[in-house]
Amino acid sequence: MARIVVDVMLKPEILDPQGKAIANELPRIGLNEFTDVRQGKRFELTVEGEVTEELLAQARKAAEELLSNPVIEDVVNVSALED
C-alpha cells in the first residue's frame, strides 16, 4: 500500500495563536534561534497500489474541498510519501 501526504497551513494573514504560544515558549527551553512558528495539519491518505498522477489529482481535490478551509487555509503540499 502507498500513502499520499497532504499538508495544510493557515494563510499568512491569519493569526495563529497556537504557533505564537509555541514560539513564546521556545526560549524557555533554551531554543532562541527560532523567530516564528506556524502550526498546520498533515493528512496521510492510503491507497492500493502505486501513487499515480491521477491519484495525486484526486488527493488535491479532496484537500481543497474537504481537508482544508479555503477561506483561512492553503494546501501547501500533496505528494507521495516515500518510505
Automatic annotation (TrEMBL):
Protein's cellular compartments: Cytoplasm
Cited InterPro entries: PurS, PurS-like_sf
Keywords: ATP-binding, Cytoplasm, Ligase, Nucleotide-binding, Purine biosynthesis
EC number: 6.3.5.3
Residue ranges crossing the lipid bilayer per the database entry: none
One MF annotation (Gene Ontology) recorded for this entry: ATP binding
A single GO BP: 'de novo' IMP biosynthetic process
UniProt catalytic activity: N(2)-formyl-N(1)-(5-phospho-beta-D-ribosyl)glycinamide + L-glutamine + ATP + H2O = 2-formamido-N(1)-(5-O-phospho-beta-D-ribosyl)acetamidine + L-glutamate + ADP + phosphate + H(+)
A GO CC term assigned to this protein in UniProt: cytoplasm
SUPFAM superfamilies: PurS-like
Pathway: Purine metabolism; IMP biosynthesis via de novo pathway; 5-amino-1-(5-phospho-D-ribosyl)imidazole from N(2)-formyl-N(1)-(5-phospho-D-ribosyl)glycinamide: step 1/2
Function of the molecule: Part of the phosphoribosylformylglycinamidine synthase complex involved in the purines biosynthetic pathway. Catalyzes the ATP-dependent conversion of formylglycinamide ribonucleotide (FGAR) and glutamine to yield formylglycinamidine ribonucleotide (FGAM) and glutamate. The FGAM synthase complex is composed of three subunits. PurQ produces an ammonia molecule by converting glutamine to glutamate. PurL transfers the ammonia molecule to FGAR to form FGAM in an ATP-dependent manner.
Family: Belongs to the PurS family.
Subunit structure: Part of the FGAM synthase complex composed of 1 PurL, 1 PurQ and 2 PurS subunits.
NCBIfam families: phosphoribosylformylglycinamidine synthase subunit PurS, PRK05974.1
Protein name: Phosphoribosylformylglycinamidine synthase subunit PurS
Species annotation: Rothia amarae
Lineage: Bacteria, Bacillati, Actinomycetota, Actinomycetes, Micrococcales
